[in-house]
């Protein structure tokens, strides 16, 4: 599923948060939106998702220009946002329609793939942060989205869980070939996961640069190539103190 | 976490695990029973001690029995009322009034509260007026209701309903307005329409606040039934209070007060059980 942003801007009560963003995303591509806080990354993602329709410019998903929420898109938020009154299984089936049995079987498959088989009847309060976020991932994937939007999905997790879930995301991507757009402020994460990293900068945020990560997956987190790239990105964000 | 993951991946049904699970369950049920007993035990230490002290003081003649009769005298009074059959009539009519008023008040509060919670326009139209009415002490309505509806059942039930209405209404409105926007966004992301959003997200999310409102509404209902029955009734626990006063029989008054306490507590316990059942998912402080 392809995605295109044409001259997208968003203004809140007279303050422009993000300005003039153009972006073309190929089907199956993983794009990272990277930038310091307040440069409009999340704003942009919410515009793509349709949760926010008050932007200027055009967003085209699979050839359709629309400001509505797309049922082919899924959103993974920064927090798990599980519904506390539903157990894990019902949370995962939340967005599905159809027969209960079919829904549940499907949900169990996805719970298996995020490593939570057997935890179906737990309630969100009984889950650790990482488990809850994995349930949220299963919930987003179970509808087989063609486009997956992630808003700093792993930023609240510890380093090890984070790496685990990044690999999980790649497994899922390999299996379902969804197009992924993810917002992040973690440079390592962006380089490890993405085909292209779009760097936003300034207030209002504008696209500063696009960096292509030309390396086969699975990538080596400690490779020289990525280290070199990281310093380039830091340079670009004016964060490289010399 | 890695360990948990391994055990789930490698198969959920290994016998050893099931064993542990069942054992865990048994333990927890045993613990529940134990803790119930403990709750009852701890909760009754102070009341029992006070009652014993009271009885002893009465017997010793320290407190005059025509002012404060001994607990046993009060118990005898309740038993004798039970034996001549009038007790059940009093209890029944009072309970009936409270529940009729409670249901009418709650239903009215649900309807208005939901409309005000969901629609901005309705909030602007109704809420200021309801808030203004709220600042009138509800007992001030009594003379007017008696004038309008006479001294019969209607005026009593309406009064109780008015008392129940406000806490339930306020809690429903604040419950609906307090639903986390983030959860509503989840619903929107799955393309739910307004009706589905209400049913699947807003209602369950505002349920805790609604139940709190119901419980405080019920408490007020019991308060207002006393007021209503004091004003004029020929039957009911509130009537027993007045009757005891007129006959200068403090044991009748105390018997009535104790019965109020017991029935009030029982009805609250029922609601509390409903709350525990329907809100088991809440992440609360456990001491």
UniProtKB/TrEMBL annotation, chain A:
Gene3D superfamilies: P-loop containing nucleotide triphosphate hydrolases (3.40.50.300). Transmembrane segments: none annotated. Residues 3-227 form the ABC transporter domain. PROSITE patterns: ABC_TRANSPORTER_1 (PS00211), ABC_TRANSPORTER_2 (PS50893). CDD domains: ABC_NrtD_SsuB_transporters. It holds the Pfam family ABC_tran. The keyword Transport applies. Keywords: ATP-binding, Nucleotide-binding, Transport. The keyword Nucleotide-binding applies. PANTHER family: ALIPHATIC SULFONATES IMPORT ATP-BINDING PROTEIN SSUB 2, TAURINE IMPORT ATP-BINDING PROTEIN-RELATED. This is Sulfonate transport system ATP-binding protein.
TrEMBL record, chain B:
GO terms for biological process: alkanesulfonate transmembrane transport; cellular response to sulfur starvation. It is a multi-pass membrane protein. This is Sulfonate transport system permease protein. Belongs to the binding-protein-dependent transport system permease family. Pfam families: BPD_transp_1. Gene3D superfamilies: MetI-like. Residues 20-30 have a biased composition (Basic and acidic residues). It comes from Gracilibacillus kekensis. Residues 1-31 are annotated as: Disordered. It comes from the Bacteria. Residues 1-11 have a biased composition (Polar residues). One of its GO terms (cellular component) is plasma membrane. Residues 87-271 form the ABC transmembrane type-1 domain. The chain crosses the membrane at residues 35-54, 98-119, 131-151, 157-179, 220-241, 253-271.
């Amino acid at each position: 599923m392809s995605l295109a942003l044409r001259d997208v801007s968003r203004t809140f009560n007279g303050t422009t948060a993000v300005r003039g963003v153009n972006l073309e995303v190929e089907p199956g591509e993983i794009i990272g939106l990277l930038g310091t806080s307040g440069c409009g990354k999340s704003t942009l993602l919410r515009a793509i998702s349709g949760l926010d329709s008050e932007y200027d410019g055009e967003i085209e998903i699979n050839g359709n220009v629309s400001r509505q929420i797309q049922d082919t898109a899924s959103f993974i938020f920064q927090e798990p946002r599980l519904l506390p009154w539903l157990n894990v299984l019902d949370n995962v089936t939340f967005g599905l329609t159809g027969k209960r049995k079919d829904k549940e079987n499907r949900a169990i498959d996805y719970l298996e793939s995020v490593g939570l088989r057997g935890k179906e009847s737990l309630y969100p309060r009984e889950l650790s942060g990482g488990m809850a976020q994995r349930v949220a991932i299963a919930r987003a994937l179970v509808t087989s989205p063609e486009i997956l939007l992630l808003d700093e999905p792993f930023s609240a997790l510890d380093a090890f869980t984070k790496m685990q879930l990044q690999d999980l995301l790649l497994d899922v991507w390999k299996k379902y070939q969804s197009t992924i757009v993810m917002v992040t402020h973690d440079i390592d994460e962006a380089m490890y996961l993405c085909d292209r990293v779009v760097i936003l900068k300034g207030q209002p945020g504008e696209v500063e640069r696009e960096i292509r990560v030309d390396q086969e997956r699975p990538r080596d987190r400690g490779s020289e190539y990525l280290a070199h790239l990281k310093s380039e990105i830091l340079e670009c964000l004016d964060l490289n103190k010399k | 976490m890695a360990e948990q993951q391994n055990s789930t991946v490698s198969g959920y049904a290994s016998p050893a695990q099931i064993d542990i699970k069942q054992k865990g369950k048994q333990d927890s049920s045993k613990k529940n029973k134990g803790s119930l007993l403990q709750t009852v035990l701890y909760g009754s230490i102070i009341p029992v001690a006070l009652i014993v002290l009271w009885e002893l003081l009465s017997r010793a003649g320290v407190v005059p029995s025509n002012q404060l009769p001994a607990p046993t005298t009060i118990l005898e009074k309740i038993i004798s009322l039970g034996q001549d059959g009038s007790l059940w009539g009093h209890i029944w009519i009072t309970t009936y009034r409270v529940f009729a008023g409670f249901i009418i008040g709650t239903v009215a509060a649900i309807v208005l509260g939901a409309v005000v919670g969901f629609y901005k326009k309705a909030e602007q139209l109704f809420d200021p007026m309801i808030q203004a009415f709220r600042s009138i002490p509800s007992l001030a309505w009594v003379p007017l209701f008696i004038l309008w509806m006479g001294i019969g059942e209607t005026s009593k039930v309406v009064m109780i309903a008015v008392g129940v209405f406000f806490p339930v209404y306020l809690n429903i409105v604040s419950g609906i307005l307090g639903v986390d926007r983030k959860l509503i966004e989840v619903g929107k992301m799955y393309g739910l329409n307004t009706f589905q959003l209400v049913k699947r997200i807003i209602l369950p999310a505002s349920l805790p606040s609604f139940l709190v409102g119901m419980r405080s509404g019920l408490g007020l209902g019991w308060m207002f039934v006393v007021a209503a029955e004091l004003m004029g009734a020929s039957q009911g626990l509130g009537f027993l209070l007045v009757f005891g006063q007129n006959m200068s029989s403090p044991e009748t008054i105390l018997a009535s007060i104790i019965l109020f306490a017991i029935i009030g507590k029982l009805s609250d316990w029922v609601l509390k059980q409903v709350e525990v059942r329907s809100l088991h998912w809440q992440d609360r402080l456990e001491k």
